[in-house]
Design a protein that fits this description.
The complex is a heterodimer.
Chain A: E1 2-6, H1 15-28, E2 33-37, H2 43-47, H3 57-62, E3 73-74, E4 80-83, H4 92-98, H5 105-111, E5 119-123, H6 130-138, E6 141-146, H7 150-163, E7 171-179, H8 184-196, E8 200-206, H9 209-212, H10 214-217, H11 221-224, H12 229-249
Parallel strand pairs in A: 1-5, 1-6, 2-4, 2-5, 6-7, 7-8
Antiparallel strand pairs in A: 3-4
Chain B: E1 6-10, H1 15-27, E2 31-32, E3 36-44, H2 49-52, E4 56-64, E5 81-91, E6 94-101, H3 115-124, E7 130-145, E8 151-163, E9 168-177, H4 182-192, E10 200-201, H5 204-212, H6 233-256, H7 261-280, H8 287-321, H9 326-331, H10 333-355, H11 357-371, H12 390-410, H13 418-437, H14 444-483, H15 488-519, H16 522-532
Antiparallel strand pairs in B: 1-9, 1-10, 2-7, 3-4, 3-7, 4-5, 5-6, 7-8, 8-9
Helix pairs in contact in B: 6-7, 6-11, 6-12, 7-8, 7-13, 8-10, 8-11, 12-13, 13-14, 14-15, 14-16
The chains are: A alpha/beta, B alpha+beta.
Chain lengths: ~250, ~525
């Protein structure tokens, strides 16, 4: 199983839309996919039309008897299941503190589902927290949407610095998100990131209204605008991530 | 489909009930798509490899309306026009995976690349994906919607379900639970169980499989049959040879059609086993039958050799050439093309030979002659050991084959010619075939323990032999390409390939002494004695 997380220290960069679209792309290409919404805002849960409820809440999930399998829900896409989020996840860090070896807890929860899925996509909340540290220890790759701006570039650098302290850190695969090629600053930052960032993927996800429409349609872009540039971008992005992960695994 | 899916079957005469069920479902808010004419096919290998792994590969193809001519009949070709195929890999308790394909795959290489193909490939290898059953229906998909907008239960209705033999099954209503919301599916099941009708576990495909009588586990050609060690040897040997003849016959047509390389392999192995059993049991069988079997199956063996050798070469091609690097692989492309052309020519020759009525009649005669054999029949001119107990004869032959193998193996040293190693490989095969063909006489675990030791030794002999044969083929091709003015890069890469094959051969030869020493031990003798213990009484 390949485990990846859409992650960024910064909020509002397109993590959730990336997680939902990538999960659907993977399923459409023959993978059995689990989308795990770890963000208490429950954006991914909303987009796949699942009920934002975890029986027993985050406390039971990360407790000693917690099992991820019990929280799975089917979605409209038969090969895609979701572990929905609810508001109890806002206390995830507090519950993790109580757990034995907190930073290994997420890896342990995923271990039991290793043979059931080909791909797990975790949608993370922003910020560096104990939960994100647990995610770093559990995943093969962090997929980091990066708005082509100076601030976003700075947070990417902060993440890299932080990961130096993580034992066996995951691959960092960043990509330009919400990009507007008409803006010279965006073009310049993308160019800079492409040459300076080792894991910077060539796919550019545009700042497109069709992506915003996901909230209205409650579906991935490929479902309601399959010929759009955004749908093509997510398709390319998944192919690129899949190829990188295969290269690392192979 | 998942073990929890259930299906209601309403026969062709139950039209009123079908309408009532659809009415109830619609009233309860299940919205159905428009019906789509669909052909659903269950794919598996001839030996049911996916089924044995608890999986199903299902191809769903929406079919365009047939072209109608002026006379209201089907269009010129009358054929269906599929709109792409959805391949679904599922199974009990397995999360389904699906992918779109252009057409129904015949080989795993025709499945789009990705995890679904990887999983199928690991199981089926080079075997063809064959249709196990197929049905046509008017498919309508409906969904019960949860308050959040997601699905809470899927219902698929297949109307006018017709199987390949044009047998109409009627209408089916499949209820597929959505993970985490299984209670909704239970409620829907209660709704559709009109007039107390029972729901069947599984889906329409499961019902079609059951109705067709097809065994989804496929057909595995075992080399052995149930045998009685106390029966006359002639009767047991006859049963073994008849089973092998059935194997040859069962793989014949697909070998001619070149459905996948394993049919030829299975046919060829059955021919070799037949030759080995005829040779080993020559004192049991009537002398005329021994002569018939020796001549006939040697001929069949010769016919099948060139095509199989080239099949093996091309199956192993990547393993041979990939380590040489991408440049050499590219330079060797003309060689692969030539090998494939030779393979096609060899298969064309084989097809002609096997399609010849003379080849068919050879097998038919053999089968008829075997059917007429019985130890109790005094008119049969049987061999001197025909009336001995089968168990005793088999034990003696296996012990003898083992002695021959060990004696000849001890004669081989570092300077022995390759032919001697090749002959030893044949000795090992004779022993292996006896163990396999009369395997039902031996207890499983001790037999398997001994076969494991023998197999480890045989692998080394096989590697040596394959590399030697393939070096000879490459040398021949190199000369041909050189004469045809091949580019220098190709000739240089051929040199590299020959060197690599030679390295494999030399390494196998070097390893021989070690492998034989590991085989020629008291532990091997003990393992064999354990396997044969029950035949001593």
């Amino acid at each position: 199983v390949k485990v990846l997380a859409t992650y960024s220290i910064k909020g509002g960069v397109g993590k959730t839309t990336a997680a939902v679209n990538l999960a659907h792309e993977a399923a459409a290409q023959g993978s059995r996919v689990l989308l795990w919404d770890l963000d208490p805002q429950g954006g991914a849960t909303f987009l796949v039309r699942a009920r934002p409820r975890m029986k027993g809440g985050a406390e039971r999930l990360v407790g000693s008897t917690g099992e991820l399998a019990r929280h799975r829900r089917g979605t409209e896409e038969p090969g895609l299941d979701v572990v929905p989020a609810d508001f109890s996840l806002r206390h995830l860090d507090l519950h993790l503190v109580d757990a034995k070896r907190p930073t290994r807890r997420i890896r342990r929860l995923l271990r039991d589902l290793g043979d059931v899925y080909d791909v797990v996509v975790i949608d993370c909340p922003p910020g560096i927290t104990l939960a994100s540290e647990a995610v770093f220890e559990a995943v093969d790759a962090l997929v980091v949407p990066t708005i082509p701006s100076t601030l976003a570039r700075r947070t990417l650098a902060q993440l890299r610095t932080f990961l130096l302290e993580v034992p066996d850190p995951p691959l960092v695969l960043s990509f330009a998100s919400m990009a507007d090629r008409r803006r010279s600053l965006h073009r310049a930052v993308i160019e800079e990131l492409t040459s300076a960032e080792p894991g910077f993927l060539p796919t550019i996800v545009p700042n497109a209204s069709v992506i915003e429409r996901m909230g209205v349609e409650r579906a991935p872009v490929r479902a309601f605008a399959p010929r759009s540039a955004a749908a093509a971008a997510y398709r390319d992005l998944w192919s690129e991530i899949d190829r990188r992960l295969r290269t690392v695994a192979g | 489909m998942g073990a929890t899916s259930e299906t209601l079957l309403l026969g062709p005469a139950d039209e009123a009930a079908s309408e009532a069920v659809l009415g109830v479902l619609t009233t309860h808010g299940i919205v159905f798509d428009l019906p789509v004419e669909t052909v659903t096919t269950l794919l598996d290998t001839v030996d049911g490899r996916l089924h044995r792994a608890g999986l199903r590969l299902v191809a769903e193809a929406a079919v365009a309306p047939r072209q109608h001519g002026r006379d209201g009949q089907h269009g010129q070709d009358g054929a269906d026009r599929p709109h792409g195929v959805t391949l679904v890999l599922d199974g009990p308790s397995v999360v389904p995976a699906r992918v779109q394909a252009d057409r129904l795959p015949g080989l795993v290489g025709e499945v789009p690349t990705g995890p679904l193909r990887d999983r199928v490939e690991r199981l089926v290898d080079v075997r063809a994906l064959l249709p196990v059953v197929r049905y046509r229906s008017q498919r309508r998909e409906g969904t019960a919607v949860a308050p959040e907008g997601g699905p809470s239960c899927r219902v698929v209705v297949h109307e006018q379900v017709t199987t390949g033999e044009n047998a109409e099954l009627g209408t089916t209503v499949e209820i597929h639970p959505v993970r985490g919301l299984e209670r909704v599916a239970r409620e829907v099941a209660r709704l559709v169980a009109v007039e107390g009708r029972a729901l069947h576990p599984g889906d329409t495909l499961d019902l079609v499989v059951a109705a067709s009588g097809v065994e989804p586990a496929g057909r595995v050609w075992s080399p052995t049959v149930p045998l009685d060690p106390r029966s006359p040897a002639l009767d047991g040997v006859r049963d073994v040879l008849a089973n092998l003849a059935d194997t040859i016959e069962g793989n014949w047509d697909d070998t001619v059609a070149h459905t996948d390389p394993e049919f030829l392999h299975d046919l060829r192995v059955a021919v070799r086993r037949t030759r080995a059993v005829v040779g080993q049991m020559r004192r049991v069988l009537p002398p005329a039958l021994v002569e018939e079997g020796r001549a006939g199956f040697a001929h069949l063996g010769r016919l099948t050799g060139p095509a199989r050798d080239l099949d093996v070469y091309l199956i192993e091609w990547s393993r041979y050439v990939d380590p040489l690097g991408p440049e050499a692989v590219a330079a060797l492309a003309p060689v692969e093309v030539l090998l494939r052309a030779r393979q096609a020519a060899a298969h064309a020759d084989l097809d002609r030979a096997l399609s010849d009525p003379a080849a068919r009649s050879l097998l038919a005669h053999w089968q008829a002659d075997l059917a007429g054999l019985a130890a109790a029949d005094a008119t049969v001119d049987a061999g001197p050991h025909a009336h001995r107990r089968l168990g005793r004869v088999v034990r003696q032959r296996i012990e003898r084959a083992q002695r021959t193998l060990v004696t000849n193996g001890r004669r081989i040293d570092d300077h022995s010619p390759a032919e001697q190693v090749h002959d030893l490989r044949k000795d090992a095969k004779q022993l292996r075939y006896l163990l396999e063909c009369f395997g039902s006489l031996l207890p499983d675990r001790p037999r398997d323990r001994f076969v494991k030791r023998l197999k480890a030794f045989q692998d080394n002999l096989g590697e040596h032999q394959d590399a030697e044969v393939h070096v000879a083929v490459i040398r021949e091709i190199a000369e041909e390409l050189h004469a045809a003015g091949a580019v220098a890069d190709t000739l240089l890469a051929l040199g590299q390939l020959m060197e690599r094959l030679e390295q494999i051969r030399v390494a196998a030869r070097r390893e021989f002494a070690e492998r034989f020493a590991a085989y020629d031990t008291p532990a091997t003798e003990r393992a064999l004695a354990d396997a044969l213990e029950s035949l001593r009484s």
